[in-house]
Specification:
- The protein is an alpha/beta fold.
- The chain is built from 29 helices and 18 strands.
- The strands form 5 sheets. Strands 1, 2, 3, 4, 5, 6, 7, 8 and 9 form a 9-stranded mixed sheet that branches. A 3-stranded antiparallel sheet has the order 11-14-13. A two-stranded parallel ribbon has the order 10-12.
Length: 671
């Protein structure tokens, strides 16, 4: 089992001691120009002078590691060494940042204007800033923010500039480099650009890894990258990627630095700028290409209210402390450091544990807003309008449950619950409607085409945009409810209430959904015990040595928890049905999502499914990965998918189990 210390649940009492400062408050009261041109003297790692961008490139190209790989590639390809050196030089030129304080000052001025227009407040935990300031002076620092918006990396640099901290150099995708003018501005604000995929390019990997390690070893600036690799369109945490994390940990493992501090950062938006864009992407609408013209067209968002942002800088994770007793660093002395070598199993486990620990920290420190709870409640009965008083009562109940589960909830207790609910509904008026004292999701009609009414399929997809937008907020709280929800579902699905049977079903569900949620490898028993503790603590279950019993008052809690997991259970179940009934030899990995979505649309229109969320490409991708991992399907020749009928039938039955069978809703009946 993985180390308990790495995955320990944070004490909610400690969270209440964190004090946040609104950094926009001063901006509203003083000159933005004076703020942008003020004296900027950040503390640096061991007082070293910042490394110039050109020097960083030279050190990278002159390193023993890059030279070794250049000669290796020359031998393998037959190219002249000089030609390979020229390729390496071109790679580093394409990649490298050119951080300039003048550009940072420009962004400081411009972003102050933008942020004051978009957001009511940007709140930062002061203790986290103090911890970060101390860490930067003592060790190389790696910043690992959660990634839910394009705004994230601009926001991070803005905050560090505000607090007079060393500005980070930031790993960014090549998509941004292609934006005229903006791409170079981002480069001069600290972005270094990397290709999305280069696994087979030995030279590119050598230059890239050495460039990042040189920054870490010199400590001239914090390195910043997104552990999840890309923005989460669903607001759920994505399975962490290990490549960059392995690179920044390597200088410690090879004894080149005393320690490396990994700092998780949680960025929580009350309203996400890209909510409708993400929902359409999840329904198969291609993402608009990043462009400068697109950026200027997006100016209209400046007229809207996006509420507040909370940014929580977490406790730095010491790589030295994490590796203590787990890795023998002496073996790195047996071979020259510059010779590439695949990491051993102990290193892989260390990196994996660190990655999951950091993502769990991001989740635990995410600040939830009241709308997250309201969206969770409204999605459980999407078609029915709920009385405002009833929604308020349920929200207060869920608020208390959420706090008991240890969530970091920002609910203004000085206001009456009805005021909190009304304010949240108003901020998200594009997703909900309030009329005659009742609340319902806003079913926006898509534009009719050529004077004709929308087809049933078009109307369904239009509704799905609203549902998936709401789900992106509900998903922000899923990490709070996940383990209790898995246990609640296991209680419904297990063959009996015997504790061993319930645990076996819990373990099965946890395994099935390990591509869907952040579930740390090897922590099944710990997750089960945590779920039992939370459901006993809130009076929903009574767990003995032999049995798991539902209490008289536990149905409300269990009903909410199974409802939260319902879309995922039904989504995986219907995909099993799709593969059993409609999979042919022509079905490939590439055609899977469009074919599955067509099947699901037919099921929804026939009233056989309840949740529009099953249309999400994120859910479909995760389910496909799970079915491949569980050997319910496997890839055959030419990337076609071969089906194991018996395994699929077993999975479908187990996922369906005793969960309520959806009945046709009024909307699906009308369609």
């Amino acid at each position: 089992m993985a180390s308990t210390a790495v995955y320990s649940h944070r004490d909610p009492i400690l969270k209440k001691r964190d004090e946040f400062e609104d950094i926009l408050e001063e901006r509203r009261l003083s000159s933005d120009l004076r703020y942008a041109v003020r004296c900027f003297t950040p503390v640096l790692y061991k007082g070293l002078a910042p490394c110039k961008a050109d020097v960083l490139k030279s050190v990278t190209l002159d390193s023993d590691h890059v030279r070794f790989v250049i000669h290796q590639v020359s031998k393998e390809t037959g190219k002249e060494v000089e030609d390979v050196q020229a390729e390496a030089s071109a790679i580093v030129e394409e990649m490298a940042h050119r951080l300039q304080l003048s550009t940072i000052r420009f962004f400081a001025f411009a972003l102050s204007k933008v942020f004051k227009s978009l957001f009511r407040s940007i709140c930062v935990n002061e203790e986290g800033i103090q911890r970060l300031q101390q860490a930067i002076q003592e060790h190389p620092v790696v910043l690992l923010p959660s990634h839910r918006s394009y705004m994230d990396f601009l926001l991070m640099s803005y905050i560090l500039y505000t607090y007079d901290l060393a500005l980070p150099v930031i790993a960014a995708g090549m998509d941004f480099m292609g934006m005229k003018f903006v791409g170079e501005m981002l480069r001069m604000s600290g972005a270094f650009f990397i290709r999305r995929s280069f696994g087979g390019d030995k030279l590119y990997w050598a230059v890239f890894s050495e460039y990042v390690k040189t920054i870490v070893k010199s400590g001239h600036a914090p390195v910043e990258f997104f552990l999840e690799g890309t923005r989460s369109r669903t607001a759920k945490s994505l399975t962490p990627k290990f490549g960059l994390l392995n690179i920044v940990m390597e200088p410690f493992l090879k004894g080149e630095v005393f320690d490396v501090c990994l700092v998780p950062v949680s960025i929580s938006y009350e309203r996400i700028l890209e909510e409708a864009l993400y929902a359409r992407e999840l329904l198969g609408v291609p993402k608009p290409k990043e462009s400068t013209s697109g950026l200027f067209k997006a100016r209209k968002i400046l007229r809207e209210d996006y509420g507040s942002i909370h940014v929580y800088f977490g406790q730095p994770l010491s790589v030295r402390r994490l590796a203590h007793g787990r890795v023998d660093r002496a073996r790195f002395n047996l071979t020259p450091r510059h010779i590439p070598a695949r990491p051993g199993e102990d290193i892989q486990r260390l990196v994996s544990d660190a990655a999951y620990s950091l993502v769990r920290s991001q989740e635990d420190n995410a600040v939830l807003k009241p709308w997250v709870l309201l969206a969770s409640l409204l999605l459980q009965d999407q078609e029915a309008a709920m009385a405002l008083d009833e929604l308020t009562e349920k929200a207060v109940w869920l608020r208390d449950l959420t706090r008991q589960y240890g969530a970091f909830l920002h609910w203004p207790d000085h206001l009456a619950p009805s005021e909190v609910v009304s304010s949240s509904l108003s901020l998200h008026g594009g997703l909900v409607r309030v009329s005659q004292g009742r609340v319902h999701l806003a079913w926006e009609q898509g534009p009719a085409q050529a004077g004709r009414a929308l087809s049933p399929e078009e109307d369904l997809l239009s509704r799905a945009v609203t549902v998936l937008s709401c789900a992106s907020y509900r998903n922000q709280a899923l990490h709070v409810f996940l383990r209790p929800a898995l246990l609640a579902s296991a209680v419904h699905l297990a063959s009996s209430r015997l504790k061993q049977h319930v645990f076996n079903t819990f373990s099965f569900l946890r395994n099935v959904f390990s591509n869907e949620f952040i579930l740390c490898p090897g922590a099944t028993v710990q997750d089960f015990e945590e779920a039992c503790y939370l459901l006993e603590k809130t009076g929903a279950l009574q767990v003995t040595q032999q049995e798991v019993l539902v209490t008289e008052g536990g149905q409300r809690t269990l009903g909410f928890l199974t409802g939260a997991l319902g879309p995922f259970l039904q989504g995986y179940q219907v995909l099993c049905r799709f593969l059993r009934e409609e999979a042919t030899e022509a079905l490939t990995h590439k055609s899977f999502i469009p074919a599955a979505r067509d099947f699901i649309i037919r099921q929804l229109l026939a009233g056989r499914l309840r949740y529009l969320e099953v249309l999400s490409s994120d859910l479909l991708k995760n389910a496909l990965a799970a079915l491949l991992r569980l050997k319910a399907i496997h890839r055959a020749q030419q990337d076609s998918l071969s089906v194991n009928q018996a395994t699929l039938k077993s999975l479908e039955d187990t996922l369906g189990g005793k969960l309520p069978t959806p009945t046709p809703t009024a909307a699906t009946a009308r369609l």
